[in-house]
Amino acid sequence: MIVVGVDEAGRGPLVGSVVAGAVILPPDFNLPELTDSKKLSEKKREMLYELITEQCQWAVGESTPQEIDEINILQATMLAMRRAVENLNAKYDQVLVDGNRCPEVDNCTAIVKGDLTEPVISAASIIAKVTRDRQMSALDQQYPQYGFAKHKGYGTKVHMEALKQYGVINGQHRFSFSPVRRAAQN
Q1: Which of 10, 28, 81, 117 is the 20 to 30 A CA-CA neighbour of 37?
Q2: How far is the C-alpha of 96 from the C-alpha of 186, rounded, in Å?
């Protein structure tokens, strides 16, 4: 049976895309350290990311800040997940998604805390998190004054102070999130 694991990264931040990973593990793939990406060090995530991308079928999908603003973060997350599964371009029997709802894909089961219990979802979690973290590092290169490489776009004190001092970044900040909306009005 071919199972696709799906998870997302970036629902909570004030900036950037929400990114979903989709992974199919080969039958002989066994990494006992696979778990929720947030429970791993950055170094461990990077190492596992390399193994997963070398040995597994995988894809990412994302929804832009503009899509998040247009359809809301939940719907944008579902869209990113569906895109990740579609970008795999693979036949599968089942999709397992971390969380309590499924995107519009066939044969889907949502599993709360699935990234802790299902290795295939853990692998997708790592793909999504590393991809999004790399996007935040790239954005940090463009806008170093915001500190994106450190806080990954979350509404930390540093980020909130940067919003006050430098304003919002059109095309990057999520205007439907109230801290960004407030900053844009000032």
Answers
A1: 28
A2: 43
Residue 61 pairs with which residues in a beta bridge? 20
Residue 97 pairs with which residues in a beta bridge?
Answer: 6, 110
* pLDDT for the residue 186: 74
Two structure tokens written together for 175: 């205007």
Burial class for 173, CB neighbours closer than 10 Å (0-12, 13-18, 19+) = buried
Walk along the chain (186 residues) in steps of 10 and give the mean pLDDT of each run: 97 98 93 84 94 97 98 98 97 97 97 95 97 97 96 96 94 96 87
Q: Thinking of the domain 3-142, which architecture would CATH place it in? A: 2-Layer Sandwich (3.30)
**Res 148: pLDDT:** 97
Number of neighbours of residue 53 by Cβ within 10 angstroms:
16
At 135 the pLDDT is 98
The domain ranges of the chain are 3-142
Give the whole-angstrom CA distance, residue 120 versus residue 115: 8
3-state DSSP percent of the chain in helix, strand and coil, to 5: 50, 15, 35
